[in-house]
Design a protein that fits this description.
Elements (H helix, E strand, L loop, with lengths): L20 H20 L2 H23 L14 H7 L4 H16 L1 H5 L2 H5 L5 H10 L2 H19 L10 H4 L1 H19 L3 H21 L4 H4 L22 H22 L5 H21 L5 H12 L6 E5 L2 E5 L7 H13 L10 E5 L21 E4 L7 H15 L2 H5 L5 H10 L5 H8 L9 E5 L2 E5 L1 H12 L2 H10 L1 H4 L6 H7 L18
Parallel strand pairs: 2-3, 3-4
Antiparallel strand pairs: 1-2, 5-6
């Protein structure tokens, strides 16, 4: 007699409704994948995310290629504590597109009259809501991928300085995820596609009115998903002072809370869903509390110290007769500064070519990241200012500042030069540049090569008359060695206070300059 043993019946984990959890989870994920593909086919979503990716790729390419031939752009010398915030640009536009389309996706069954058919399915409405919320996750992941690629590209550049923040990098994908989940919730609260458009318009207008009404209060600004702070030169990483980690917690908590609210609205009133919503609300409140206080007294003291006395925290290195003093995160820029300073020095005559100089890095951090404070000219002899930005127009601006110190003795005296010495300053600054004419255009406020203009330096600038422009252009048109030899042979008179522009033109054999008294100088009458 043979005895057979029947195999044990498979056990299954069931949910509160008695249905197995595994199949329900797989069903939710399958629906989420379908809805995600539907979102990706929406023209608005496809366009916005394609433009976002293309703009990021173009920025990476143009940054590596420089602004134009022989002239590196500022994107080639990023400060990573600014580069992480730069990844947040465009996040709100991506979020707005996803918000509208996620709202329409939830309302699709209502528009097409299939709500009754869905009502007879085994999958409850709150699970369908969860699937719609999960359908926006791939777009947040795509945003995170673009952010990572962009920041990594900046971090790998030879001129990169500073340190980025993971919390700042998380803002863009969290914002996209938040907007998508908010669209799902809105569809459950107000079943009308028109409501999403009104909310988008209000979302871009209301924060501005609230900011004005609150007088720009710190805590009000940080309720927005993306908080932009631009205007100042890069400050040391330790002085940024943004509550990035608290803000990331606020965005994550708010996203989770909106998801919990959408599930509750759709009938998912289980203990777990309610507990999830409560915990999410607590995380949101904690994030708000953490990000609301403004800069601490210790941070403001540290910002004032580095702004007023950078020498207290700088490291200095001597290269020949020039000493370069840099803030801790910028010591790697010394080689680039030295290369530019050596070009300027190579055209100087007399003792100016070998006199001791100090290039001191300065930053204005007292007014925060939104305050682009100017640098007052230094009165210390032989000391020139360099900022925390480098590349692009900052290179010829530094060259002009250094040349004015070589000619006038210090920055304050150099800012007051208006006679024929302006020609000497501009020749020293730009004569050895790879493209002197382009550098001259870049350093002039009106970006013009004709007439008078204001020439920018790290500490302000100096005035350049039309006649002085004509003489400088004439020097640029000559062979470099010929012009350099002429300047060096008349160095003493070319750098003497009171030497007129007409006299400089005579010494350098430049015709066509007016000899009327003071006619060619840039001094204010």
């Amino acid at each position: 007699m043979t005895t057979t043993t029947a195999p044990p019946e498979p056990t299954s984990v069931t949910g509160a409704d008695g249905a197995p959890r595994g199949p329900r989870v797989r069903a939710v994920l399958a629906l989420a994948r379908v809805e995600s593909r539907e979102l990706a086919r929406q023209a608005v979503v496809l366009l916005f995310f394609a433009v976002y990716a293309a703009a990021t790729a173009w920025r990476m390419y143009s940054g590596h290629a420089g602004w134009h031939a022989g002239h590196e752009g500022m994107a080639d010398h990023p400060a990573l504590q600014d580069a992480d915030r730069a990844t947040q640009s465009g996040a709100l536009l991506l979020g707005a597109a996803l918000f509208v389309c996620a709202d329409r996706a939830v309302l699709r069954s209502r528009r097409r009259g299939t709500e009754e058919q869905l009502g007879v399915l085994v999958m409850e409405p709150w699970r369908r809501t969860l699937a719609h919320a999960l359908s926006v996750v791939p777009f947040a992941l795509f945003t995170a991928l673009v952010v990572a690629v962009r920041f990594t590209s900046d971090a790998l550049r030879a001129g990169a300085v500073g340190h980025g923040s993971a919390a700042e990098l998380a803002v863009a994908p969290l914002t996209v995820l938040l907007c998508g989940v908010a669209g799902v919730l809105l569809a459950r609260l107000v079943p009308s596609w028109f409501a999403a458009l009104l909310v988008v318009v209000a979302g871009f207008m209301v924060p501005a009115f609230l900011g004005v009404a609150a007088g720009g209060a710190h805590w009000v600004r940080w309720l927005a998903p993306v908080v932009t702070e631009t205007g100042s030169d890069p400050v040391p990483s330790g002085l940024v002072g943004r509550p990035a980690a608290w803000h990331a917690l606020y965005l994550a908590g708010l996203t989770a809370f909106l998801l919990g609210a959408a599930l509750l609205r759709s009938g998912g009133r289980s203990v777990r869903v309610k507990a999830f919503a409560v915990l999410a609300l607590a995380a949101t409140a904690a994030g708000i509390a953490g990000q609301s206080p403004g800069p601490s007294a210790a941070l403001q003291t540290a910002r004032a110290r580095v702004s007023e006395h950078p020498e207290a925290v700088e490291s200095c290195a001597a290269r020949g007769t020039t000493t370069y003093c840099a803030l801790p995160e910028w010591t790697g820029r010394t080689d680039a500064w030295a290369k530019t300073a050596d070009r300027v020095r190579s055209l100087a005559g007399g003792i100016a070519a070998t006199r001791p100089l100090t290039v001191r890095q300065r930053v204005e951090a007292r007014y925060g990241l939104d305050g682009g404070g100017a640098y007052d000219p230094l009165t210390a002899p032989g000391t020139a200012t360099v900022g925390t930005r480098w590349g692009g127009n900052r290179v010829p601006e530094f060259s002009v500042g250094l040349a004015s110190v070589l000619v006038a003795g210090d920055e304050r005296a150099g800012a007051e030069v208006c006679d024929g010495r302006v020609v000497t300053v501009m020749w020293l600054a730009l004569g050895a540049a790879p493209d002197p004419v382009t550098a001259l255009r870049d350093v002039r406020l009106d970006e013009n090569l004709e007439g008078g203009s204001y020439v920018l330096t790290p500490t302000g600038g100096l005035r350049m008359s039309a006649e002085q422009t004509k003489v400088v252009r004439a020097l640029f048109d000559r062979p470099r060695q010929e012009a350099a030899s002429a300047v060096k042979s008349h160095w003493a008179e070319l750098t003497a206070p009171g030497t007129s522009t007409a006299r400089v033109a005579d010494l350098l054999d430049v015709p066509g300059v007016s000899h009327a008294k003071g006619a060619g100088d840039a001094c204010e009458k």
